[in-house]
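User: I'm writing a short methods note and want a consistent example. For PA domain-containing protein, I'll paste the sequence; you return only the structure tokens, no commentary, since I'll be parsing the reply automatically.
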Amino acid sequence: MVSFEGVYSVVFVFLFGVSLVLAGDIVHHDDVAPTRPGCENNFVLVKVPTWIDGVENDEYVGVGARFGPTLESKEKHANHTRVVIADPPDCCSKPKNKLTSEIILVHRGKCSFTTKANIADEAGASAILIINYRTELFKMVCEENETDVDIGIPAVMLPQDAGLNMERHIKNNSIVSIQLYSPLRPLVDVAEVFLWLMAVGTILCASYWSAWTAREAAIEQEKLLKDASDDYVAESVGSRGYVEISTTAAILFVVLASCFLVMLYKLMSFWFVEILVVLFCIGGIEGLQTCLVALLS
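Assistant:
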């Protein structure tokens, strides 16, 4: 038998675990942004660890462009490359500074992303970092009139604070070098397996706890029936604080919850998140009420 609080705990653990997994998703598929030859990459999160004058510094996160070659997936294979500021900063015309396979840091605006990348590629840069004019990231796509894109260097969008911080160090005559790599998501995520086992363990513990408390309550009730008077017995008989659920029902709950998680992972959307928030609120209120009643009694 499983109590209601056990069921709510399991639902919370299942859904919260999936939300963590989804938050860490590395590849962002987009069916809205146009794709064409040379402009068909997935939008991937890119890790950008930095070194200032040879000393390891902050690590930033950017997003790869729809165009250009894909990045290395393992940190140990990614090269340490020096970063230089573009002159002009927007990189909408040929840079005045001579490049020898450095990574060029440019600002967003005045021309298209592909124009910036092409100019940087022709100037000899090994990659281009584009600073967004907001703190969030932006998906870089090709223009509608570009039918055949051929860009030979990776392009990565950085949030404004990260790009300006990197630019400030370079302007202070510091040598800034970075790595660019996009880690692959494993086929089997250990965190997902752990969360599933934790949720199933919660069900088993809740079942055992409910059975144990029900047995203790039955023994106590039996003692009262033997010792109390008839009037007291009539008053003491009432509804129980737990709900009996069979083993089959518990297993069915695990299966249905697992199917629900798969559906949640595949069909994640804004309205689905709102439904989850409502379910969390209902489950939390019910669980809090049960805990308060148990403590007061």
